[in-house]
Amino acid sequence: MVSNLSPAILRSAHEIGEDFAGWRKILGLTAAQVADRADVTRDTLRKLEHGDPSVSFHVVLRVARALGILDTLTTALDPLDTDLGRARAGQLERKRIR
């Protein structure tokens, strides 16, 4: 499955993994501390920090919470925090057409 991913996705997974590792280091936390707080194994945390795109989404969220950046991540993805999103906010309220 990972072999089917585009280079752009693999590159982004790697960059996001590096960002998680960077946050951990800036906060002065060990991998063991973050893994324990996130209730994941150190191996799973290592995979995330090395950009393994097969890491489950819930792991990403758990680690973000353990690092105290879950709200930052959530806000970064909010379409209404962008000019384009605010300009097209009406589309978020429309019913789905089947």
UniProtKB/TrEMBL annotation:
Query: Matching CDD domains, A to Z?
Result: HTH_XRE (cd00093)
- Which organism is the protein's source? Agromyces lapidis
Q: Name one Pfam family in it.
A: HTH_31
Q: Where is the HTH cro/C1-type domain?
A: 23-73
The family database entries (Gene3D superfamilies) matched by this protein are listed as: lambda repressor-like DNA-binding domains
Q: What is this protein called?
A: Helix-turn-helix domain-containing protein
